[in-house]
Each structure stands twice: as C-alpha cells, then as structure tokens.
Aspartokinase (Undibacterium baiyunense), 416 residues
Amino acid sequence: MALIVHKYGGTSMGSTDRIKNVAKRVAKWHDAGYQIVVVPSAMSGETNRIIGLAKEIMADPDPRELDMIASTGEQVSVGLLAIALQALGKKAVSYAGWQVPIKTDSSYTKARIASIDDAKVNADLAEGKIVIITGFQGVDELGNITTLGRGGSDTSAVAIAAALKAQECLIYTDVDGVYTTDPRVVSDARKLNTVTFEEMLEMASLGSKVLQIRSVEFAGNYRMPTRVLSSLTDPLMPLAEEIVSGTLISFEEDTNMEQATITGIAFNRDEAKLTVFGVPDKPGIAFQILGPIADANIEVDMIIQNQSVDGKTDFTFTVPRGDYNKAMDVLNASVKEHIGAGNIIGDSKVSKVSVVGVGMRSHVGIASQMFRTLSDEGINIQMISTSEIKISVLIDEKYMELAVRALHKAFELEAA
Ligand code: ASP
Ligand code: MG
C-alpha cells in the first residue's frame, strides 16, 4: 500500500476547527487506501509565544532550555490531531520526536537529523493506524530534546518521508503552490505545476520563502518527490483533483525538455554592499578581508574583485542588510589596520534580482536578454553573479519591483 506523508503548517493547525478540517482531509486519504503519516507544526503563533515567555525572563536563554520549551507547541498539535482523527472513528497515534526516535546532533535550536527509526511507525501503519509525528523536534545522543530551527517542520516531514520511503511528501500550507515570482509584486505571476529541486533551492534561498530551505536539500538528496499545496481548500475535495494540485518539486530528468528556458524571477530586497578600495593585490587578501566577516558570523553572498592597477585593486561583497553595520565595524576594525587598504564605502539600500531556470543549461543568450531588459528600463547593474541555472544582479533597491516586473514580462512568465 502506498505511503504518503502529509505536513500541515501552523496556519492549517491554527484552531480546533482547522484541526478538525485537517483530520477530515487525512481521513479522506486514508479511506482512499493510502497509509498516512502526518507531521504537523505548532498552532500558528504558539512557538513565538512560548519562546517569548523565556525571553521575558532573560534576553539570551540557555539554548537547551529554549528547545525544551519551543518543542512543546508541536506536542500539543499532534495530540489534538490524533484526538480529532479518533473522533472521526480512525485509529490514530501520536509521537514526539524522542519516541520515534528522530535522532539529531546536539546543536540546540538548529539541530541536524542523524537518523530516523522506522520500526515503531511501520508497525503502527501495518495495523491500519494513522501515525502523527511532531515536526521540528528530535532527540540527541544523550536524550536531550532538540529543535531543527524555525520552520523546521518542513524538514522533519521530508526527512520522515525519506526514511519511510514514502511515495510522496505533501506540504499543506497557506499558499497554493510555488509561483514564477511573488504575486504581491507581479499580479499575473503564474503558479508552477513543477519546479526542479535545484530551482526551488535557488528560489527559496533567494527569498521565495515557501519552504524551509533544508527540507528542499533533503528532498534533493533523497530524491523524495515533494508537493506544496493548499490546506485552505475544501478538505473533502475530490482526491483526483487534490493529487495533482499545487507545485511538485521534481527532478530534472523527470521534466520534459521542451519547458521554458526560465522558470522564475527571485529577489531579495534586503541586501547591503561594502567596498574596500586600494587593496594590495597579493595572496591572502580575500581571506584577510572575509575571514573576520565570517568570524563575526556574517554570511557573504556576492563577491567581486577587480583587475588590479599599479598593484592595487577594489574588493566588493554583499551581506544581509541586517548585518550591514556589524560588517562595516568589522571591516573598519580589522581590515583597514592590517591590510593597509584605502577607503571603505557601503550602500545598505541594494537588492538582488535573479532569473532562475534549469533551461538555462541548454539555451544561450539569457544573460544578454536579462541585461537588455534592465537597460531598456534604465536600471543600472552594480554587480553580477551567475551559476549554471541562475543569473543574479545587484541593483538600487528603488528599482527592484520594476526590474522584477520587466523581467517577468520579458521572459513571458505571466499567466496565460
Ligand atoms: N513551530 C516551529 C516554528 O514556528 C516549526 C515550524 O512551524 O515549522 O518555527
Ligand atoms: Mg513554515
């Protein structure tokens, strides 16, 4: 019998009425002959609320105790859902992460899954039970409760689906799929029926935050077909319709090669850029500039080093806007003194816009079409970076939405 894993987000679990709807939907799938494992999030707002309690006592609480607290939201959800399913006459059993167990390393608040034991769950499924497992949490070697980082239930669900060799992992959420770009910026953005997991990684990391990015990595590594679909539809809608709804995150080989060259336009509004002028052009310089930035736990994204003139060069990189001041302080403290570079300047009002698509591998001219489109709009490109399936430009924040709209149109991504 085919096994399907369902994941429900906090909005879908947001009240007992919504939980009853989730139970109806799950029961419908079970009635249709599927084995079902459900991985819910905490009720919406709950994780924030309980973490907030800890922070009322102390600004920077012990991460072990934070995980002890944060993990409880999911425990309430699984119990309520089991009760709601039992109320519909279904056999259902809930488990916390440690009961399965879902073993993780000991990095509290951002633990990584090491292994998932399938014995207990498989035995329950064989008895016809619907199994409900907490998202977000696990247990380390020593029996401490851990959590997987905010939004971690997505990752729990895909990892559980992979461990149980499920046919598909369905992520039910409050949007009905993945779009060519954010519909709030481009009103005729189109819902994608499929997106490859590599494209999804680029779209997610570039700010299309539908799924926790680690869940997409899991889907890719374990080749687990994962579908994003809406939990706001009628829970009793015909299964045949529901099965093909939303967006399937698939693998490149599975998609037909005639697809469009570009899949979507991703963007990240909140970038900042820093430039160090007059850097001596000699071995170790990039490391000396970026080493202290990494030590300060700041993530660097785009990097450009110029051709040197008279032994001096300029070095520019981008960081998340929230880290801009910190990065500037680090540069001023370390780099200037030790490297003997010139001025440091920065701009905290820049945004990144990217065109993404595996079709780029087999088509030429995407970059020139992108640059022509931006030029036609009079938008200046400050930095460019590329990968096999993505071209990104850094531009003035003022023009971000204009750029996204123009590119969405130029690559004919709009809904028919
Ligand atoms: N409840 C956790 C959070 O709010 C995990 C999740 O919802 O995925 O981050
Ligand atoms: Mg989420």
